[in-house]
Amino acid sequence: MYLITNRQLVQSDEEYFQKIEAAVKYGICRIILREKNVSDDVLLKYAKTITKIIENTNCKLIINSNEFVYKKVKPYGIHLPFEMFLGYEKKKDEIVGVSIHSSEEAIKADKLGATYILASNIYETKCKEGLKGKGVKFIEYIKKHVSCKVIALGGIKEDNMKEVYNSGADGVAMMSAFME
After folding, report:
1. Chain centroid offset of residue 160 CA
2. Other C-beta atoms lying within 10 Å of the C-beta of residue 74
3. Which of 17, 63, 83, 121 is the Cys-Cys partner for 70 at CB 3.0 to 4.6 Å?
4. Domain locations in the chain as residue ranges
């Protein structure tokens, strides 16, 4: 399970880090630090605090889209939007995840060396209101055409998680379920 952070879903930094700590205790294995509306300095502070929270656990930190913070913190990996990934020079053995929204993007990201793809949105979600979910058939199709890991995102909750895993997903990512 992956946690995608969103500071805007909580009232304070204190609550933010409490939610992350609770998710780590729950057993998540990856945290994608994805804060779109903060400065590099604030993001760097968040990354360092999360690094302390996950110390001595099996959980790993992934920085979303910010190469400056990625290079400063040297976390487990970096996560990129598809278009940004197309221009990224992946180093050997580097962990690079890619957000995809179509089977074509999934196949291309895999061919270009993505470590994993984050496939969305599987179900309808508040984060993308009005956008119909692609369903688990999307995961099934992608799994037949890529060799990298496929992580499902979008509207995934405890009551539909089994269906997602049964479709072949290697993991699930959630934001609201952990941050709210």
Report:
1. 18
2. 10
3. 63
4. 2-179
Instruction: Give the distance, in angstroms, between the CA of residue 95 and the centroid of all CA atoms in the same chain.
Output: 12
Annotate 86-138 with DSSP letters as a single string: HT--PPTT-EEEEEESSHHHHHHHHHTT-SEEEE--SS--GGGTTPPP--HHH
Per-residue pLDDT tens over the stretch 42-97: 999 999 999 999 999 999 999 999 999 999 999 999 999 999 999 999 999 999 99
Task: Tell the residue number behind the tokens 């995934």, with chain if given.
Answer: 156
Cα–Cα nearest to 152, from 129, 126, 179, 125: 125
Chain centre distance of CA 127:
14
Average of per-residue pLDDT across 136-156: 97
Q: Which amino acid is at 41?
A: D
Give dist(CA 104, CA 82) in Å, integer.
11
Burial pattern 138-170, b for ≥16 Cβ within 10 A else e, equals bbebbbeebebbbbbbbbbeeebbebbbebebe
Strand (E) or helix (H) holding 68:
helix 67-73
* Sign of the torsion angle spanned by Cα atoms 25, 26, 27, 33: negative
Main-chain phi, psi angles of 149, to 5 degrees: -70, 150
Fold adopted by 2-179: TIM Barrel (3.20.20)
